[in-house]
Amino acid sequence: MTTENRDARGGGPPGSVLRLAAYPEAELPGELARQVAGIEARVWPGSRFGHDPLLRPRVLVLLDGDGVVGASLTLLYKEVPCGGRVRRAAGLSGVVTRPEWCGRGLGGRLVAGARAVLEADPAVDLALFSCDRPLAAFYERAGFERLPGTVLVGGTPDEPLATDAPGFDKEVLGAFFAAGADGGADRAALSGSRVALHPGTVDRLW
């Protein structure tokens, strides 16, 4: 998938045509992996690049014409309980922009691109993830919707970590891709509910 966007403000990142590329994390080219890991380390000191392979991580990178990573995120996948049935869900993790390129809309383009990727995937019924409350409007602008009262329970059944845990200020967002009544039923089932994601001990909040 490719998107072509030019920074309307001028003085944009090198190589003004931007391309959205997606790779299974295990197949991410080494140079791109090094760039993403370096950006994450700058934004989140002490962080470790990589996700639980059981969540089938897929990395999306927004590249300039010289192959420089401007922004990246990872899509994670698993089945979740939803209104008495099991639905195929995806979540966003590790959304980050190269610090010197912040403020130029790259993050919004990347997240909107991720939503389009998920919507086009017949193996995905819905998107579901959390963010710090001040960032919720950013994800709304990219096409996701807030789910008031919904709580995601991460971690494991024995060691859960919920988005309403003390000290957290999280908001849950989603998008529903199933057609017609199925999509509406998914939204109704998840709104205001506690959703047992239990992704494990690596990606604890997704």
- Give the name of the CATH superfamily: Gcn5-related N-acetyltransferase (GNAT)
* CATH class descriptor name: Alpha Beta
Could you spell the SSE succession in H and E letters? Answer: EHEEEHEHEEEEHE
Quaternary status of these chains?
single chain
Rg over CA atoms:
17 Å
Give the helix/strand class. Answer: alpha+beta
Structure summarized in a few sentences:
With about 210 residues, this protein is an alpha+beta fold.
Describe the structure.
This protein has 206 residues and is an alpha+beta fold. It has one domain: Aminopeptidase (3-Layer(aba) Sandwich). It is 22% helix and 32% strand. Strands 1-2-3-4-5-9-6 form a 7-stranded mixed beta sheet, sandwiched between helices. The protein has a 3-stranded mixed beta sheet with strand order 8-7-10, with no helix packed on it. A hairpin with a 5-residue loop joins strand 2 and strand 3. One of its GO terms (molecular function) is acyltransferase activity, transferring groups other than amino-acyl groups.
Topology:
Layout (H helix, E strand, L loop, with lengths): L18 E6 L5 H14 L14 E6 L5 E14 L2 E13 L8 H14 L6 E7 L3 H6 L3 E2 L4 E5 L4 E3 L7 E7 L3 H11 L3 E3 L10
Provide keyphrases for this structure.
single chain, alpha+beta, Aminopeptidase, seven-stranded mixed sheet, three-stranded mixed sheet, 10 strands, globular, disordered N terminus, Acyl_CoA_acyltransferase
